[in-house]
Amino acid sequence: MATLPIGLQLYSVREELEQDFVGTLKAVKEMGYDGVEMAGLGHKDPLEVKKILEEIGLVCMSSHAPTDELIKDGAIARYKALGCDYVVIPWMSYGGHNQRLQENLELIRTLADKAHEEGLMLLYHNHDFEFKKVDDKCVLDIIYDTVPADRLQTQLDTCWVNFASFSPVEYLNKYAGRSPLVHIKDYWEAEGNTGVPYDLIGKSREDRENEGFIFKPVGQGIQDVPAILEASKAAGAKWVIVEQDESPERPALESAKMSIDYLRSFEW
Questions:
Q1: N or C end of the chain: smaller count of CB under 10 Å?
Q2: Which CATH architecture does the domain made up of 6-185+222-263 adopt?
Q3: Whole-number Å distance between alpha carbons of 45 and 139
Q4: Which distant-in-sequence residues (6+ apart) come within 8 Å of 31 by Cβ?
Q5: What are 26-55's pLDDT values in tens digits?
Q6: Are 155 and 170 spatial neighbours (Cβ–Cβ below 8 Å)?
Q7: 172 touches 140 (CB < 8 A)
Q8: Rounded Cα gap, residues 202 and 143, in angstroms
Q9: DSSP string, 7-22
Q10: First to last CA, the chain
Protein backbone atom coordinates (compact mmCIF):
# COMPACT_ATOMS: atom_id res chain seq x y z
CA MET A 1 0.00 0.00 0.00
CA ALA A 2 1.26 3.46 -0.91
CA THR A 3 1.65 5.86 1.97
CA LEU A 4 1.75 8.95 -0.25
CA PRO A 5 -0.89 9.97 -2.79
CA ILE A 6 0.05 9.29 -6.40
CA GLY A 7 -0.59 11.73 -9.22
CA LEU A 8 -0.15 11.65 -12.97
CA GLN A 9 1.48 14.49 -14.90
CA LEU A 10 -1.03 14.92 -17.70
CA TYR A 11 1.68 15.66 -20.24
CA SER A 12 2.01 11.86 -20.23
CA VAL A 13 -1.41 11.51 -21.92
CA ARG A 14 -1.59 14.81 -23.79
CA GLU A 15 -2.76 13.34 -27.10
CA GLU A 16 -5.54 11.40 -25.40
CA LEU A 17 -6.66 14.53 -23.58
CA GLU A 18 -6.91 16.41 -26.86
CA GLN A 19 -9.18 13.71 -28.24
CA ASP A 20 -11.34 13.21 -25.14
CA PHE A 21 -10.54 15.44 -22.18
CA VAL A 22 -13.19 14.21 -19.76
CA GLY A 23 -12.98 10.57 -20.81
CA THR A 24 -9.21 10.51 -20.37
CA LEU A 25 -9.45 12.01 -16.88
CA LYS A 26 -12.05 9.40 -15.95
CA ALA A 27 -9.70 6.68 -17.20
CA VAL A 28 -6.88 8.11 -15.06
CA LYS A 29 -9.14 8.00 -12.00
CA GLU A 30 -10.26 4.44 -12.75
CA MET A 31 -6.61 3.35 -12.89
CA GLY A 32 -6.22 4.37 -9.26
CA TYR A 33 -4.50 7.74 -9.44
CA ASP A 34 -5.37 10.13 -6.64
CA GLY A 35 -4.72 13.31 -8.54
CA VAL A 36 -3.26 15.00 -11.57
CA GLU A 37 -0.68 17.61 -12.36
CA MET A 38 -1.74 19.74 -15.29
CA ALA A 39 0.66 20.50 -18.12
CA GLY A 40 -0.75 24.01 -18.33
CA LEU A 41 -4.29 25.26 -18.90
CA GLY A 42 -3.96 26.58 -22.44
CA HIS A 43 -7.24 28.30 -23.24
CA LYS A 44 -9.32 26.22 -20.83
CA ASP A 45 -11.42 27.89 -18.14
CA PRO A 46 -9.81 27.01 -14.79
CA LEU A 47 -13.16 26.94 -12.98
CA GLU A 48 -14.61 24.59 -15.56
CA VAL A 49 -11.60 22.26 -15.31
CA LYS A 50 -11.79 22.38 -11.51
CA LYS A 51 -15.45 21.36 -11.63
CA ILE A 52 -14.69 18.44 -13.97
CA LEU A 53 -11.88 17.20 -11.73
CA GLU A 54 -14.02 17.48 -8.60
CA GLU A 55 -16.85 15.53 -10.23
CA ILE A 56 -14.42 12.79 -11.28
CA GLY A 57 -12.73 12.75 -7.89
CA LEU A 58 -9.23 13.85 -8.84
CA VAL A 59 -7.15 16.38 -6.93
CA CYS A 60 -5.20 18.92 -8.94
CA MET A 61 -2.24 19.69 -6.71
CA SER A 62 -0.18 21.58 -9.26
CA SER A 63 0.39 22.59 -12.83
CA HIS A 64 3.36 23.19 -15.04
CA ALA A 65 3.31 26.49 -16.91
CA PRO A 66 5.94 28.15 -19.10
CA THR A 67 7.61 31.28 -17.79
CA ASP A 68 6.38 33.42 -20.67
CA GLU A 69 2.85 32.65 -19.53
CA LEU A 70 3.46 32.99 -15.80
CA ILE A 71 5.01 36.44 -16.14
CA LYS A 72 1.76 37.85 -17.54
CA ASP A 73 -0.63 39.67 -15.23
CA GLY A 74 -3.30 37.35 -13.87
CA ALA A 75 -1.67 34.15 -15.12
CA ILE A 76 -0.83 32.68 -11.72
CA ALA A 77 -4.28 33.61 -10.43
CA ARG A 78 -5.76 31.21 -13.01
CA TYR A 79 -3.91 28.33 -11.40
CA LYS A 80 -5.10 29.42 -7.99
CA ALA A 81 -8.65 29.34 -9.37
CA LEU A 82 -7.97 25.81 -10.61
CA GLY A 83 -7.30 24.82 -7.00
CA CYS A 84 -3.57 24.23 -7.23
CA ASP A 85 -1.26 24.61 -4.26
CA TYR A 86 1.80 24.72 -6.51
CA VAL A 87 2.74 26.14 -9.89
CA VAL A 88 5.81 24.71 -11.58
CA ILE A 89 8.39 26.05 -14.02
CA PRO A 90 8.79 23.06 -16.36
CA TRP A 91 12.10 24.06 -17.91
CA MET A 92 14.30 27.00 -18.84
CA SER A 93 16.97 27.40 -21.47
CA TYR A 94 20.49 28.15 -20.25
CA GLY A 95 22.58 27.88 -23.37
CA GLY A 96 25.78 27.51 -21.35
CA HIS A 97 26.02 31.24 -20.74
CA ASN A 98 26.42 32.77 -17.30
CA GLN A 99 24.43 35.82 -18.45
CA ARG A 100 21.48 33.59 -19.28
CA LEU A 101 21.75 31.98 -15.85
CA GLN A 102 21.62 35.36 -14.15
CA GLU A 103 18.63 36.38 -16.26
CA ASN A 104 16.86 33.16 -15.35
CA LEU A 105 17.57 33.63 -11.66
CA GLU A 106 16.01 37.09 -11.77
CA LEU A 107 12.96 35.72 -13.58
CA ILE A 108 12.58 32.88 -11.07
CA ARG A 109 12.75 35.39 -8.20
CA THR A 110 10.06 37.51 -9.83
CA LEU A 111 7.75 34.55 -10.47
CA ALA A 112 8.33 33.20 -6.97
CA ASP A 113 7.18 36.51 -5.51
CA LYS A 114 4.15 36.60 -7.81
CA ALA A 115 3.17 33.07 -6.75
CA HIS A 116 3.63 33.97 -3.09
CA GLU A 117 1.33 36.96 -3.50
CA GLU A 118 -1.36 34.59 -4.81
CA GLY A 119 -0.84 32.14 -1.96
CA LEU A 120 0.85 29.52 -4.15
CA MET A 121 4.34 28.04 -3.97
CA LEU A 122 6.58 28.09 -7.02
CA LEU A 123 8.51 24.91 -7.85
CA TYR A 124 11.27 24.28 -10.36
CA HIS A 125 11.26 21.08 -12.42
CA ASN A 126 14.72 20.03 -13.55
CA HIS A 127 16.13 18.23 -16.55
CA ASP A 128 19.69 16.96 -16.80
CA PHE A 129 21.18 20.17 -18.16
CA GLU A 130 20.81 21.94 -14.81
CA PHE A 131 23.57 19.65 -13.55
CA LYS A 132 26.15 21.41 -15.67
CA LYS A 133 28.54 23.29 -13.41
CA VAL A 134 29.24 26.99 -13.12
CA ASP A 135 32.18 27.85 -10.88
CA ASP A 136 32.22 24.22 -9.71
CA LYS A 137 28.57 24.24 -8.63
CA CYS A 138 25.61 22.64 -10.42
CA VAL A 139 23.20 25.15 -11.94
CA LEU A 140 20.35 23.46 -10.07
CA ASP A 141 22.05 24.07 -6.74
CA ILE A 142 22.79 27.67 -7.70
CA ILE A 143 19.07 28.17 -8.32
CA TYR A 144 18.09 26.81 -4.91
CA ASP A 145 20.93 28.60 -3.13
CA THR A 146 19.90 31.90 -4.71
CA VAL A 147 16.11 31.84 -4.27
CA PRO A 148 15.09 31.07 -0.66
CA ALA A 149 13.02 28.05 0.29
CA ASP A 150 10.07 30.18 1.42
CA ARG A 151 9.71 31.34 -2.19
CA LEU A 152 10.98 28.41 -4.27
CA GLN A 153 10.86 24.67 -3.66
CA THR A 154 11.90 21.68 -5.71
CA GLN A 155 10.18 19.32 -8.04
CA LEU A 156 12.98 16.85 -8.51
CA ASP A 157 12.56 14.83 -11.67
CA THR A 158 14.33 11.67 -10.59
CA CYS A 159 14.81 10.43 -14.14
CA TRP A 160 16.84 13.46 -15.18
CA VAL A 161 18.81 13.47 -11.93
CA ASN A 162 19.91 9.91 -12.64
CA PHE A 163 20.45 10.57 -16.34
CA ALA A 164 22.81 13.39 -15.35
CA SER A 165 24.83 10.79 -13.38
CA PHE A 166 23.74 12.00 -9.96
CA SER A 167 21.85 10.03 -7.31
CA PRO A 168 18.11 10.76 -7.01
CA VAL A 169 18.19 9.53 -3.40
CA GLU A 170 21.08 11.80 -2.49
CA TYR A 171 19.37 14.79 -4.09
CA LEU A 172 16.13 14.06 -2.27
CA ASN A 173 18.11 13.87 0.95
CA LYS A 174 19.84 17.13 0.06
CA TYR A 175 16.54 18.94 -0.40
CA ALA A 176 14.62 17.29 2.41
CA GLY A 177 11.93 19.65 3.62
CA ARG A 178 11.96 21.40 0.26
CA SER A 179 10.59 18.61 -1.98
CA PRO A 180 6.78 18.57 -1.78
CA LEU A 181 6.28 17.00 -5.22
CA VAL A 182 8.57 14.35 -6.68
CA HIS A 183 8.48 13.16 -10.27
CA ILE A 184 8.74 9.38 -10.55
CA LYS A 185 9.94 8.61 -14.04
CA ASP A 186 11.69 5.55 -15.41
CA TYR A 187 13.87 4.94 -18.43
CA TRP A 188 16.33 2.58 -20.02
CA GLU A 189 19.66 3.10 -21.73
CA ALA A 190 20.77 0.45 -24.20
CA GLU A 191 22.54 0.30 -27.52
CA GLY A 192 20.04 0.21 -30.35
CA ASN A 193 17.31 2.23 -28.64
CA THR A 194 16.20 5.07 -30.89
CA GLY A 195 14.46 7.25 -28.32
CA VAL A 196 15.76 10.74 -27.65
CA PRO A 197 15.68 12.55 -24.28
CA TYR A 198 13.20 15.46 -24.18
CA ASP A 199 12.88 15.56 -27.95
CA LEU A 200 9.87 17.81 -27.54
CA ILE A 201 11.43 20.90 -25.93
CA GLY A 202 13.68 22.14 -28.67
CA LYS A 203 16.62 19.75 -28.57
CA SER A 204 17.55 18.32 -31.96
CA ARG A 205 17.42 14.58 -32.48
CA GLU A 206 20.87 14.72 -34.03
CA ASP A 207 22.34 15.96 -30.76
CA ARG A 208 20.92 13.11 -28.71
CA GLU A 209 20.24 10.21 -31.05
CA ASN A 210 23.20 8.06 -29.97
CA GLU A 211 22.40 8.01 -26.26
CA GLY A 212 20.29 4.83 -26.40
CA PHE A 213 17.54 6.40 -24.31
CA ILE A 214 13.97 5.16 -24.05
CA PHE A 215 11.19 6.12 -21.62
CA LYS A 216 9.63 3.25 -19.66
CA PRO A 217 6.65 2.79 -17.34
CA VAL A 218 7.64 3.09 -13.70
CA GLY A 219 9.26 -0.13 -12.52
CA GLN A 220 10.24 -1.23 -16.03
CA GLY A 221 13.51 0.67 -16.33
CA ILE A 222 16.77 1.22 -14.48
CA GLN A 223 15.53 3.42 -11.65
CA ASP A 224 15.67 2.10 -8.08
CA VAL A 225 12.07 3.11 -7.52
CA PRO A 226 11.63 1.66 -4.00
CA ALA A 227 14.68 3.59 -2.77
CA ILE A 228 13.40 6.78 -4.44
CA LEU A 229 9.99 6.35 -2.82
CA GLU A 230 11.51 5.88 0.62
CA ALA A 231 13.73 8.91 0.11
CA SER A 232 10.70 10.92 -1.05
CA LYS A 233 8.86 10.09 2.16
CA ALA A 234 11.90 10.93 4.27
CA ALA A 235 12.25 14.25 2.42
CA GLY A 236 8.70 15.20 3.38
CA ALA A 237 7.09 14.80 -0.03
CA LYS A 238 3.35 15.34 -0.14
CA TRP A 239 2.83 13.69 -3.55
CA VAL A 240 4.71 11.46 -5.94
CA ILE A 241 3.83 12.13 -9.56
CA VAL A 242 4.23 9.71 -12.44
CA GLU A 243 5.47 11.23 -15.67
CA GLN A 244 6.33 9.47 -18.92
CA ASP A 245 7.18 12.03 -21.56
CA GLU A 246 6.70 9.60 -24.43
CA SER A 247 5.39 6.06 -24.74
CA PRO A 248 7.07 4.54 -27.79
CA GLU A 249 6.23 0.90 -27.04
CA ARG A 250 2.50 1.04 -26.21
CA PRO A 251 -0.41 3.48 -25.87
CA ALA A 252 0.23 6.20 -23.28
CA LEU A 253 -2.77 5.24 -21.16
CA GLU A 254 -1.52 1.66 -21.02
CA SER A 255 1.87 2.90 -19.81
CA ALA A 256 0.18 5.08 -17.18
CA LYS A 257 -1.73 2.05 -15.92
CA MET A 258 1.42 -0.08 -15.77
CA SER A 259 3.06 2.64 -13.67
CA ILE A 260 0.25 2.95 -11.13
CA ASP A 261 -0.16 -0.83 -10.93
CA TYR A 262 3.53 -1.17 -10.12
CA LEU A 263 3.45 1.58 -7.50
CA ARG A 264 0.49 -0.07 -5.79
CA SER A 265 1.97 -3.58 -5.96
CA PHE A 266 4.13 -3.25 -2.82
CA GLU A 267 4.17 -1.44 0.51
CA TRP A 268 6.12 1.77 0.83
A1: N
A2: Alpha-Beta Barrel (3.20)
A3: 35
A4: 256, 257, 260, 261
A5: 999 999 999 999 999 999 999 999 999 999
A6: no
A7: no
A8: 22
A9: EEEGGGGHHHHHH-HH
A10: 6
